[in-house]
């Protein structure tokens, strides 16, 4: 098993209120030259958590951080216009993300939580993940 030190949260950069699937994201990533979906988990708008790339495999979601991280993506992240960054997480997505982070923290107790924007010049995941989830890891 890989050594995991970071749990990195992303948004799919999809418009508010629209559903997308793991398979659609996989196709987007394959078209970009990835060998599979870059994320390990995807959280749908209804709060269901879906597997992406196996956790045992290095992801393709955050340059210079993939080797020791798990990538988690929620569907959404843009306003309905499809351009403006926005925290579009539903209540179900927020609850699912907390649950998943708690589960992953139990498996990888030394891992820290980060938003993609900490490592890239992007709004992703459109909220301050590090601050929001710091209490989960004390």
Tell me the major beta sheet: 5 strands, mixed
Structural category is alpha/beta
Query: CA-to-CA gap between the ends?
Result: 24 Å
Give me the count of strands. Answer: 7
Shape: globular
Order of helices and strands: EEHEEEEHEH
Low-pLDDT segments, ≥5 res: none
Helix content: 10-25%
What percentage of amino acids are in beta strands?
Answer: 15-25%
Average pLDDT for all residues: 96
Q: What is the quaternary state of this protein? A: single chain
Strand order of the largest sheet: 4-3-5-1-7
The count of helical stretches stands at: 3
From the alpha carbons, calculate the radius of gyration and give it in angstroms.
14 Å
Task: Give the SSE map.
Blueprint: E1 6-11, E2 14-15, H1 22-31, E3 41-43, E4 49-51, E5 69-74, E6 77-78, H2 91-107, E7 112-115, H3 129-133
Parallel strand pairs: 1-5, 1-7, 2-6, 3-5
Antiparallel strand pairs: 3-4
What does this structure look like?
This protein has helices at residues 22-31, 91-107, 129-133, and strands spanning 6-11, 14-15, 41-43, 49-51, 69-74, 77-78, 112-115. It has 138 residues and is α/β, with parallel strands linked by helices. The strands form two sheets. Strands 4-3-5-1-7 form a five-stranded mixed β-sheet. Strands 2-6 form a two-stranded parallel ribbon. A hairpin with a 5-residue loop joins strand 3 (41-43) and strand 4. The model has no long low-confidence stretch (mean pLDDT 96).
